[in-house]
Amino acid sequence: MSNTDIYLSKAASWRDTLKLEVGSEPPKKENIPEICRSGLLEWAQHGTLFSEKLVELMCEGLGVRPGKLKEMRCTESVILLGHFYPHCPQPDLTAGLVPHTDHTLVTILLQDQTGGLQVKRDNQWVSVVPIDGAITVNIISNDKYKSVEHRVLANGSAEARISIPLLFHPAGVCNEDGDSGYYGPLVELLSTENPPKYRKFTLKEFWKQSQGKAISPNIVTNAFKIVAEG
Ligand SMILES: O=C(O)CCC(=O)C(=O)O
Ligand SMILES: [Fe+2]
């Protein structure tokens, strides 16, 4: 795969992306370039173990059983992206990756020391100094954990930048229509004071929201948001 939304966005992002599904069914070895094959598979393995711990802690933070999200198979579909941001001679004219929110349960990002990732805080872009892990969290927490808006600047430095996020998504059991059961805010988190902010959805509906659309913030979450009347 090249740049994920090259034919859908107004301007091409200065990036190439390799996409691999590394969840329950590991990818065919021949589909992974030999030069990075063992490194990517090793990262996927370690990253997955790390995500399991992280998701348990997220459950604790939400006040639900540590195994709750794993039992719901919320992290079973794992996508590894290998982003390559080459030197851009005019970085002010485009982006490396345009502003967006990840629609994953959790993303674990491995990045080199080049920098360029920014997150939006109080309406200002703040640079994330390269460290080994960065996470974004999604909607089944009824907004208790929010998926942060972020972007990557076009890479003005002489050396290319590399980042390898692992994206963890739900992989529900399929029913006879080939779709999952319903996902939505955890019932444990809802009350009269904290009503659902999102409607329920199946995984088919979930994936349909991002198909054929240019990358942008909250593209999936907005589709399921319950808009207050009045
Ligand atoms: O390259 C990065 O630092 C971020 C990548 C990213 O945001 C994504 O793949 O969703
Ligand atoms: Fe992202």
Note down, in words, how this protein is organized.
GO terms for molecular function: dioxygenase activity; metal ion binding. Belongs to the iron/ascorbate-dependent oxidoreductase family. Residues 74-170 form the Fe2OG dioxygenase domain. InterPro entries: IPNS-like_FE2OG_OXY, IPNS-like_sf, Oxoglu/Fe-dep_dioxygenase_dom. The structure is a single chain. This protein has helices at residues 37-62, 68-71, 203-208, 221-224; strands at residues 16-21, 77-85, 95-100, 106-111, 117-121, 124-127, 150-153, 161-169. By secondary structure, the chain is of the alpha+beta class. The strands form two sheets. A four-stranded antiparallel sheet has the order 1-2-8-4, with helices on one face. The protein has a four-stranded antiparallel sheet with strand order 3-7-5-6, with no helix packed on it. The longest helix is centred in the first third of the chain and has 26 residues, at 37-62. The protein starts with 15 loop residues before the first strand and ends in a 6-residue tail after the last helix. 2-oxoglutaric acid is lined by residues 81, 83, 97, 102, 109, 111, 117, 150, 152, 163, 165.
- The neighbouring-strand order within the major sheet is 1-2-8-4
The tally of helices reads: 4
Indicate the low-confidence ranges by residue numbers. Answer: none
Beta-strand content: 15-25%
Shape: globular
SSE pattern, N- to C-terminal = EHHEEEEEEEHH
Which ligands are bound?
2-oxoglutaric acid, fe (ii) ion
Mean of residue pLDDT values: 87
Quaternary form = single chain
- The gyration radius over C-alpha positions equals 18 Å
What structural class results from the helix and strand content? alpha+beta
Helix content: 10-25%
- How far is the first residue's CA from the last residue's CA? 45 Å
Largest sheet: 4 strands, antiparallel
How many beta-strand segments? 8
